[in-house]
Amino acid sequence: MAVPCPSSSVGFYGLDESDLDKVFHLPTTTFIGGQESALPLREIIRRLEMAYCQHIGVEFMFINDLEQCQWIRQKFETPGIMQFTNEEKRTLLARLVRSTRFEEFLQRKWSSEKRFGLEGCEVLIPALKTIIDKSSENGIDYVIMGMPHRGRLNVLANVIRKELEQIFCQFDSKLEAADEGSGDMKYHLGMYHRRINRVTDRNITLSLVANPSHLEAADPVVMGKTKAEQFYCGDTEGKKVMSILLHGDAAFSGQGIVYETFHLSDLPSYTTHGTVHVVVNNQIGFTTDPRMARSSPYPTDVARVVNAPIFHVNSDDPEAVMYVCKVAAEWRSTFHKDVVVDLVSDGRVCYRRNGHNEMDEPMFTQPLMYKQIRKQKPVLQKYAELLVSQGVVNQPEYEEEISKYDKICEEAFTRSKDEKILHIKHWLDSPWPGFFTLDGQPRSMSCPSTGLAEDVLAHIGNVASSVPVEDFTIHGVTNRTVDWALAEYMAFGSLLKEGIHVRLSGQDVERGTFSHRHHVLHDQNVDKRTCIPMNHLWPNQAPYTVCNSSLSEYGVLGFELGFAMASPNALVLWEAQFGDFNNMAQCIIDQFICPGQAKWVRQNGIVLLLPHGMEGMGPEHSSARPERFLQMCNDDPDVLPDLQENNFDINQLYNCNWIVVNCSTPGNFFHVLRRQILLPFRKPLIVFTPKSLLRHPEARTSFDEMLPGTHFQRVIPEDGPAAQDPNNVKRLLFCTGKVYYDLTRERKARGLAEQVAITRIEQLSPFPFDLLLKEAQKYPNAELAWCQEEHKNQGYYDYVKPRLRTTIDRAKPVWYAGRDPAAAPATGNKKTHLTELQRFLDTAFDLDAFKKFS
Predict the structure, then answer these.
(1) Which of 98, 474, 60, 545 is nearest to 307 (CA)?
(2) pTM over 0.90
């Protein structure tokens, strides 16, 4: 907190003690005078100290907007502005009672359980409720929240209003988990609830997004979900939907994702028109002191980069906290910009009363701090004593408030004992009304054809190669089509016709990294004039959003994941500039996309487009690391599923944690994008997209492969001479993606079209056991080999080999033709690249290559 300025400091301004009683005219920029235009210097100093040197510290002078600075001055300098009615004070006390007694109840019942309680910052609950109340008063009807584990159960209970018995059930180790997934710790779970705000008597929807232990990782997810909800309700200024993000001090200054998320806040395709940030300032990170945790004076200094005002407030002064929270909510509704509330101590104690969790002993590392903390009187007790002394409440009324809430908790505890099973579905943070049946199941287990009528395809193709705006001059090179790009265009355009919003985001996606997409055309004669032809395809079509992102992977992929959470009726895609950049967003992939449904029963149809291919361009932009995605697939490589099951392929998709494909034709890429929406459920889709194939003369698809009745091909079998006489085939090569074209070129050059068959696996996960079994049985005399262009310890081999062995006779080996193991994804030497390529092609087509190993 700020320290009052001694009167002797007036000497800094060329004044002395004799000037203290002189009257000075006040500048027009200050509000300390109220109705007066002049005041004695002594009174000026006193009023400034009352405004800025008590329990509230304000950072705003860095904001480069005079109107905004003056607005803040008025909120804190006006004499007597921070006043509360007795009714407001009683409400504040009741909220503090609930916040405090909830934690005490959990401690009494489950003293040996980790719960990451809120002890020491119980004022957070009335603070959040104040922000929500004021926002509701200003027209907000949907608040989306994200927060770490500390205090999460209290927020769920007393802000979101999760049923207490459902929370208490999470502590019962004897309850069997429902067969809905693997679940997550209770302090990671989310919630969605619509209720009446008792202060404003208006409907309000509250959503707390589930998150992992990775601090701040949920920030961009919350922002993306908020943006989506604003988009779907036409809230172009953020007047109906808003977000609140909670942070710890160490994570707020330490985690780079905070900075990435702040820099999305004012970008046209990412802004949510202001977020209220609340920092629970523990003055410690687990066991790390602030002097070891950050280089800046305050953990909130990162917010300065977007001109967000920062309000530091003593969390032991509940009324000051409530006032600051009201101002923060008003700022957001007035200026639609971010704002930060920093809940801190008065400089003597920290506000994390326990250690990192209830089992942790903080005296090991902060002995003096925690000796002082244990002397500190709880904020509820201090505020209750204050209100009793003011006559706002009496002691019996205060004790009755406590007894009333204790009774609520005890009754809920009793009801919780009647529960027989733990259901994760009760904790869903993003429901999709009407998409599933009432019990949360798909409405069918089938997928219609993904093909389209020829006139629809032709219309989309014509628009793609023209400009639907008058007097618009395009670059000559872009007025042509590329088959792979056109297939994508047709998939997107057809979904727009069907009312499906399509959103494509990522670095340089408007043009495409490889200059192949051109979904945004630029007038060559008028600066900044652009056209998006896809938004002119059909009358009453769904909108198409294509947006170049900031140079961020972690933040932007998290944002798009959040956007995809809001509705199943949208195709949301994130494209990496190069496939290997996905590892900059590894946390979102590992903690949200891969296990999200298993942990939180939350389906998501996000699509990742990852350019991949070994093309002699060095180690950095060659591999999208398919081995990592495949390693995290949840199917068992040693168990052959029931291939006779009805809708086997759809059931496989339903049971997998994500879909991984590597298409070798534009047509199959078209079909898999359309299938993503036509499926009766949602799964993340990982697509390894091509680079050189974008313009490869043989990578073409005819309309015949995209007409009604056609569909995505999980496996593309051999259709050449080898397929006509399968008994004569000596080797069956399995492969995926671009290497197929290297193999067919080499096979033709060697004249082995009748002796070597090549089968392409287009869908790697879930693995097409049924179709590959047919392929293997078709060629009874053939050796089986897997061929890939990636190194042996990378790519697909370690994933494919055990599954192929499970599919066929285990006594029959699956040989390998590809690059040797390596540390780097690819060589940086072009000649070495070509030598490696020829070497594994020689292996693939030398029909005696494996005999020495037999």
Answers:
(1) 60
(2) yes
